[in-house]
């Protein structure tokens, strides 16, 4: 089980956050509600969504590598 206070737990949380925000960007209601602000605290969701959509191949590879690490190595 991943601990949030360890480095691998933070990486898992970051990857899941970026993937979730990228998914929210594809849903019209969630896009207008959650991703409308580009600055401030709510801007973090927007920036994570942009990272997830622009670097989708790198994020997908990172998710696969992290899943392999969590399931088999850790």
How far apart the termini lie comes to: 9 Å
Percent strand:
under 5%
Broad shape: elongated
Outline the biggest β-sheet.
none
Q: What is the residue-averaged pLDDT?
A: 87
Subcellular location: Golgi apparatus membrane
Function: Involved in the early part of the secretory pathway.
Keywords: Golgi apparatus, Membrane, Signal, Transmembrane, Transmembrane helix
Membrane topology: Single-pass type I membrane protein
Q: Mind explaining what this structure looks like?
A:
It is elongated, with a radius of gyration of 13 Å. It has one domain (5-71). With 74 residues, the chain is an all-alpha fold. The chain has helices at 7-26, 28-34, 43-54, 56-73. The longest helix is centred in the N-terminal third of the chain and has 20 residues, at 7-26. The relative contact order is 0.15.
Jot down its keywords:
4 helices, elongated, 0% strand, 74 residues, mainly alpha
